[in-house]
Specification:
Blueprint: H1 8-24, E1 26-30, H2 44-47, H3 52-55, H4 58-61, H5 68-78, E2 83-89, H6 115-125, E3 129-135, H7 151-170, E4 177-181, H8 189-192, H9 194-204, E5 209-210, E6 220-221, E7 235-240, H10 259-271, E8 275-280, H11 290-306, E9 327-332, E10 335-340, E11 348-351, E12 353-354, E13 357-362, E14 370-373, E15 377-381, E16 395-401, E17 406-407
Parallel strand pairs: 1-2, 1-8, 2-3, 3-4, 4-5, 6-7, 7-8
Antiparallel strand pairs: 9-10, 10-16, 11-15, 12-17, 13-16, 14-15
Helix pairs in contact: 5-6, 5-11, 7-9, 10-11
This protein binds ligand FHN.
Residues 42-43, 181-182, 224, 239, 246 line the site of ligand FHN.
């Protein structure tokens, strides 16, 4: 995508709109729809070539428990997540809100409820920012594919698409994030008239944050199922499944990210000023998968004591620190947070740190840690023999320096 120079005013407005998002760090992605009833991934309709007439029956068989979104929001809060993004319409084309664009929706069919309205209410009840996921690709709409080759079909499908976005931006109060997905079959913003669509969204929601999946860069990049920072200055959010499927798909516990893995993903994104959007795929009735509940609850317990190392304004570590054998870093100006995930015993050595070390504390207890700074290493001493963190085996040491620290280790160097 060609990089265009954005005006100072645009950059300033984006910084204003996105400050809460950067500080928030951690969000919950929710993939829930007709596909959840199949329990075989949200792409089952496409991968299994289920005929539309057969698939549509799911619209009337969908039974939803009372207000499941409250369970999601309560768990998100408990897990230390600050915002949510839910599928309002996935590729299957079924709309979870009271839309006038199609009768294929959760109010006219199956649940006979506005599931998006319930989700918005739940987010607000638990003090979470509200994100809407919207799939541009639509396997159900009659023009969803032929729009690529037929101008009349394109017009109809764009009127449908822009109409859906307009409803979502108009009918549910303040919306904080617009998360587009899969801009197939067009391969340009002109095909979708994205500029016009996003300008409409921003006019209706002046503070909204828009991702990069309508063929325009907009506000942030979206690496998926991997963690890779965008260029410095460009916001980014890694979206990750919990067990390899976005939609409900029961798999053995070993397929689900461990608490330690989730914490390491949080550290990785925080170390390069990114966000983590971690997905749950609720069961057909809306229930939270047990393993997601169990592991996110533990993540939240850990974050409650160590969140300082990830929330708020962080600096990029890239190029300033090297990999370590017992842990890894996040950085806030002169404070270096060492996430020790491999407990060394009573003494922890970190080689090659440059800068005058003033103080070391443990984030989980606030206790000062005895340390000695030598020419080639820092020694943290008087530690417990075994790792004291019983939640995940990860202890964060906060090292306060007189100035911004860095590390020089190299490959072949040894101390004589
Ligand atoms: O095809 C979708 C997929 O089902 C899921 O919604 C992810 C989430 O980012 N987006 C697409 C794959 O990139």
């Amino acid at each position: 995508m060609a990089k265009t120079q954005e005006s100072a005013a645009v950059l300033k407005d984006r910084a204003r709109r996105m400050k809460w998002w950067h500080d928030a760090r951690f969000g919950m992605f929710v993939h829930w729809g007709l596909y959840s009833q199949l329990g075989r991934h949200e792409w089952a309709m496409n991968r299994e070539r289920i005929p539309i007439s057969e698939y549509e029956k799911l619209a009337d068989s969908w039974k939803v428990k009372p207000r499941p979104a409250r369970e999601w929001a309560a768990l998100a809060k408990k897990a230390g997540m600050k915002y949510m993004v839910m599928t309002t319409k996935h590729h299957e084309g079924f709309c979870l809100w009271d839309t006038q664009q199609t009768a294929y929706n959760a109010v006219k069919r199956g649940p006979h409820r506005d599931l998006v309205a319930e989700y918005v209410d739940a987010c607000r009840e638990f003090g979470l920012k509200v994100g809407f996921y919207y799939s541009l690709m639509d396997w159900h709409h009659p023009d969803g594919a032929r729009c690529a080759k037929d101008e009349k079909a394109r017009r109809r499908f764009l009127d449908f698409t822009h109409g859906c976005v307009r409803e979502l931006m108009s009918n549910y109060g303040k919306i904080d994030i617009l998360w587009y997905d899969v801009a197939w079959p067009f391969s340009t913003p002109e095909g979708w008239e994205s500029k016009k669509m996003n300008a409409m969204a921003r006019k209706l929601q002046p503070d909204i944050i828009v991702n990069n999946r309508s063929w325009l860069p907009e506000d942030f990049g979206t690496p998926e199922e991997h963690i890779r920072a965008e260029d410095a200055g460009r916001a980014w959010e890694a979206c990750m499944t919990f067990n390899g499927s976005w939609g409900w798909l029961p798999t053995p516990p070993e397929d689900w990210h461990s608490v330690r893995k989730v914490l390491d993903m949080l550290r990785q994104v925080s170390s390069e000023q990114g966000n983590l959007l971690l997905n749950i795929g609720p069961k057909p009735d809306g229930s939270v998968p047990e393993l997601a509940n169990e592991r996110l609850s533990a993540v939240g317990k850990w974050i409650a004591k160590n969140g300082e190392a990830m929330y708020g304004a962080v600096d990029r570590c890239g190029g300033r620190f090297e990999w370590m054998n017992t842990g890894a870093y996040t950085l806030k100006k002169n404070s270096l947070y060492y996430w020790c995930s491999r407990w060394p015993g009573k003494e922890l050595a970190i080689g090659g740190l440059k800068g005058s070390l003033r103080k070391v504390t443990r984030l989980d207890t606030g206790a000062n840690v005895k340390f000695r700074q030598e020419k080639f290493r820092v020694l943290l001493q008087g530690l417990p023999e075994n790792c004291p963190d019983k939640v995940a085996g990860v202890v964060v040491f906060k090292l306060d320096f007189a100035s911004a620290p860095r590390q020089e280790l190299g490959t072949g160097y040894v101390v004589l």
